Amino acid sequence: MKLFFGTTKAQSTPKDAIISLRENISMLEKRETHLQSKIEQELAKARDFATRNKMAALAALKRKKMLETQVEKISGSRLMLESQVMTIEAANVNLETMKAMQTGAEAMKGIHKDLNVDKVDETMDEIREQMDLANEISDAISQPQLFGAELDEDELNAELEELEQEVLDKKLLDAEHAPMVLPNAPATSVGQQGQRQQQHPQQQQRQQAATVSDEDDELAELRESMGMAA
Hints:
The protein has helices at residues 2-5, 14-49, 54-112, 117-142, 153-176, 190-197, 201-225. The chain is an all-alpha fold. The termini are far apart.
């Protein structure tokens, strides 16, 4: 069968194709350089024979023209091969990019295989429950407790107010019954005593008012020290 249909060629990879194309491009470049050199030679011959031998000069120009035609064809072929190389390289880059994207997609599938939105929500609910439990435990530990005794805050505050009122009443009572000590009056003559007895009644009233004002000031200071309003 191989005699009729020939051998089956292995499928070339992009890398092999690019290598083969670059080898052909290099060969064409060498061929083009060689032809350019021959064109320069034929041009020099035509210049040399231009005044001495017109037939030889025309033959040199014809050869130069044919060489230039070959150079144009080689340049076109080389341009086509270079275009194929760039196309294959771009396609190969796209292929490698697609493979990388497929690999990433498979990795993401593997990661999300056992993970979904319901499991995430369930985990977050468990975390919130544990955090709430931790806060309750912390509050319970930090709150002072008197083991074996239940205290009524309202009852304690009422008892404290009774004690404060009792202390205040006692101080007010002691202040009202406190004896007033008058300074020792110097000895006076009978004439001076008579003059004092003859003082104006308004002056005596001012002295009594001053005494009452001093007592009021003492009571106000006592109330202020006890934190009570006047």
